Amino acid sequence: MENIQIKLPIFKETSLKEPAKRESTLHSLSINYALIPTLNKFGYMLEKPDVISEEFIEYATLTGGTVLDIGTAYGATTISALKKGAYVIANDLDERHLAILQEKTPFELRERLFICKGKFPSAVDIQSSSLTAVLASGVLHYLEGKELKEAFLKVYDILKPGGKFFFFTSTPYIKFFEGFFDTYLKRKAEKAEWPGLIDNSWVYAPNHTNILPKLINLLDMDVTTQLFKESGFLIEKINYVSMEGYPLEFHSNGKEYIGVVAQKPL
Ligand SMILES: C[S@@+](CC[C@H](N)C(=O)[O-])C[C@H]1O[C@@H](n2cnc3c(N)ncnc32)[C@H](O)[C@@H]1O
After folding, report:
1. Residue 266: which residues within 8 A CB-CB, separation 6 or more?
2. Distance 138 CA to ligand 1 centre (A)
3. What is the domain extent for residue 140?
4. Which residue has its alpha carbon closest to ligand 1 atom 4?
């Protein structure tokens, strides 16, 4: 294990409240995978890691270096990576999520788990050029434009040259926000910098006020590509991802998510 410096907050013992039971997380009968609600209204953790998180798990294991999972929630991806032998810094802004993750991590894997509570990027301090991989799945679209750009620059900074950034995000095509789509198209035509920025999500998703924050920055292909290029990354692949198998409010035309794997140049 390399000596990575992370400023860890003092971790208070919290009651290890379990996430809501599976039955109450299912929003459709015809789905294969559950969504576990977060405790702080930041959406759901995917019970089954998405395709990009799966690639992160494989890569994290191969490199042998330390990796970071931003916005891990209860750590489905982090625990899978630990089980395969990775050294993982698990980050989240909610310590209740991290307490559950710690509790759920098998005892023998805990020496490779490093807990990092704090909002990314502003409250997370990790040594430059120290990580072999970073994952941000279903998390950075909760940041407005300036913070989002700072987050990408920070990921670039903390990765080693050759390290990889695995990114997975909702797009304006997600069915949750179909009522916003015309606004998105209008802003797109006006060449707005952040055409998918919603600061009143509850207007468009009134049935989800208990699970979504007000600000959501849905990212399309152009905006996502630009973010990676501006920050200095080389994009290895970038694709739309369908949320088939998940509840219907996520579906649209197969473009509801974007997945990216990018590299910090050597
Ligand atoms: C929608 S869940 C995603 C969980 C998991 N990554 C997944 O893909 O299933 C978002 C998680 O990110 C956390 N979060 C939101 N904004 C964050 C930020 N700026 N920094 C760190 N964690 C954040 C929330 O507390 C929540 O646990």
Report:
1. 161, 162
2. 6
3. 18-172+217-243+254-263
4. 45
| 190 Cα: distance to centroid of ligand 1 (angstroms) | 31
Contacts for 4 with CB less than 8 Å, ≥ 6 apart: 66, 89, 114, 126, 127, 130, 131
CATH number for the domain harbouring residue 69: 3.40.50.150
Q: How far away, in angstroms, is 139 Cα from ligand 1 center?
A: 4
pTM of this structure: 0.89
Residue with the nearest Cα to atom 11 of ligand 1?
A: 71
192 located within any domain: no
Helix (H, G, I), strand (E, B) or coil at 257: strand
CA of 189 to the centre of ligand 1 (A): 31
**Other C-beta atoms lying within 10 Å of the C-beta of residue 236:** 11
Q: Is residue 187 part of a domain?
A: no
What separation in angstroms does the CA of 135 have from each of 86, 138, 171, 190? 13, 10, 18, 32
User: pLDDT tens track of the chain, all 266 residues?
Assistant: 444 443 333 223 233 333 333 333 333 334 566 788 999 999 888 888 899 999 999 999 999 899 999 999 999 999 999 999 999 999 999 999 999 999 999 999 999 999 999 999 999 999 999 999 999 999 999 999 999 999 999 999 999 999 999 999 999 998 889 899 999 999 999 999 999 999 999 899 888 888 899 999 999 999 999 999 999 999 999 999 987 766 666 666 788 999 999 999 99
Distance 158 CA to ligand 1 centre (A): 19
| Ligand 1: lining residues by beta carbon, under 6 Å | 38, 40, 42-46, 70-73, 91-94, 97, 119-120, 137-139, 142-143
